[in-house]
Specification:
This protein is an alpha+beta fold. It has one domain (about 35-475). It contains 14 helices and 20 strands. Strand 12 and strand 13 form a beta hairpin. The longest helix has 15 residues, at about 65-75.
């Protein structure tokens, strides 16, 4: 009964279960899934199916909060420039990865990664990706930071350029249907300082995260997440999730945000600093402090003695992100989607992509102390446990281990990606690149990249009849 009890605790109230304890732990045909829309984010749910499905405020965001939401939205989308002297929208650079939040997170989603469509950053290309670099012993390079900034303002040297080579391999499901996996090989060229030898370099690429359900994530009941970690042990599936803890704002906190749950907040201030070179009260130094680009910028007449953006402006962006609504599921009564939901459970996907969580009673607090009680006391359906899981080291010699340590997370560990809204990514952003670096071009490839703790579920999917695989994919499109 242990498996049944754990499943019941994680899935109610979205899913009602009848007696289902058998030799395999679960008889999927006994799962009753109610008809109708699942309110993905409680009172923050929207019913949009357009390109604005990720980029609309929740109904509770009214009055002064609506005014601040609009201001935060504008600051999020406005293109930064290298202007100084307090000009609104200035402060870009000297080096940067994106020129606005919206440049990488179009419509609060994930901009199509030019890294894949254009083979890399090239001479003038914009990757819409972050490139993390470290020595193989985990240390940073003294002339660079944790992120390689492949863009720069006029007259200043970018830190380097990234190139991608794609190697495709064809595989076959047991029923004969073929699928491909793409193995990316990243090369960095045009180092602004001394070249770094490939044998001394770890490089990992991250395409943008979708900004769906960020407010609900920050309002989650931390005790519930820690309880999930304590009981997230399924030896029959090879699954054992764990929480990430990081030192942030001077104290040890549970990590929720980021590919490896390596942040305890939405990283607004860090994003403006590291991604755009925009200084603020939390990060008052230029991102390239002490590097050659500072001297180049000074020669261009740039001033470094003022902050580019205020704490109040930062909190407006934080409010914008917290106030975004989450699209409801679609086509939930379609027979194929309903069958696909059953297959989702049969494959054990729900053990990490947990269907139902709850927010704490008082909601969330923004970076400058503003409270958002409307996010409190909600039942939400993110399809994630927000825990770290070993996703495997190798598939045909190349795996999801990026050798990048974040807090307690090892290179092969990744936070379970929340799936809410994922079926609208193509409508919102016009593409279906998935996983941390975009190597999966569709849902099938994303599933087949699962290794480690995802191996058993991947194999369940792999051995399903094609009709059931197609149904599971149809279910993902409904999220």
């Amino acid at each position: 009964m242990r498996f049944y009890i754990k499943l019941l605790m994680m899935c109610l109230p979205l899913t009602c279960l009848t007696a289902c304890d058998d030799e395999d732990g679960l008889d999927v045909d006994d799962i009753f899934i109610p008809n109708g829309y699942a309110l993905s984010a409680g009172t923050s749910t929207n019913f949009l199916r357009s390109s604005y499905a990720f980029d609309s405020e929740a109904d509770w965001c009214t009055g002064n909060f609506k005014t601040r939401f609009i201001r935060g939205d504008k600051l999020y989308d406005d293109v930064r420039t290298s202007a100084t002297g307090g000009a609104y929208g200035g402060g870009l650079g000297p080096v940067y990865a994106g020129y606005s939040c919206g440049s990488c997170h179009r419509n609060a989603g994930r901009t199509e990664p030019a890294l894949w469509s254009s083979q890399g950053s090239g001479a003038h290309g914009f990757t819409s990706a972050l490139i993390y670099i470290t020595r193989k012993n985990g240390a940073f390079f003294p002339d660079y930071g944790r992120v390689l900034h492949d863009q720069s303002i006029l007259g200043v040297s970018a830190e380097g350029k990234v190139k991608i080579d794609k190697v495709y391999q064809t595989f076959t499901f047991p029923d004969g249907e073929e699928y491909e996996l793409c193995y990316p090989v990243y090369t960095i060229t045009d180092w602004y300082a001394d070249d770094i030898a490939p044998e001394d370099l770890f490089c990992t690429v991250r395409i943008p995260l979708r900004h769906v359900g960020m407010g609900q994530m920050m309002a989650l009941d931390r005790n519930e997440i820690e309880q999930l970690a304590a009981r997230s042990n399924y030896p029959e599936w090879g699954i054992s999730g764990r929480a990430n803890y990081i030192n942030e704002r001077g104290k040890l906190q549970l990590g929720l945000s980021g590919n490896k749950a390596q942040h305890a907040d939405l990283t607004v201030e860090l994003g403006f600093s590291s991604d755009m070179g925009v200084t603020n009260s939390r990060y008052p130094e230029e991102i390239c402090e002490g590097q050659l680009q500072m001297k180049e910028g000074s020669m261009m007449g740039l001033s470094y003695d003022q902050l580019d953006v205020s704490t109040e402006e930062m909190e407006n962006v934080d409010l914008y992100l917290h106030s975004l609504s989450v699209p409801a599921r679609r086509n939930v009564n379609d027979p194929q989607v309903k069958r696909g939901e059953q297959m989702f459970y049969q494959a054990g996907c729900h053990l990490c992509h947990v269907t139902t969580l709850h927010t704490r009673p008082r909601g969330a607090t923004l970076l400058n102390g503003t409270e958002l009680p409307w996010l409190g006391g909600q039942t939400v359906h993110p399809y994630s446990d927000y825990l770290l899981h070993d996703m495997g080291s190798e598939i045909m010699g190349v795996g999801l281990n990026d050798n990048y340590v974040s807090g307690l997370a090892r290179g092969n560990e990744w936070r379970t990606t929340p799936l809410w809204g994922i079926g609208l990514q193509q409508i919102v952003n016009g593409h279906t690149y998935f996983l941390h670096d975009g190597r999966a071009r569709n849902f099938v490839e994303a599933i087949m990249w699962h290794g480690g703790e995802g191996e058993a579920s991947k194999n369940k999917f792999k051995n399903m009849p094609k009709a059931d695989r197609d149904a599971l994919v149809a279910f993902l499109w409904s999220l």
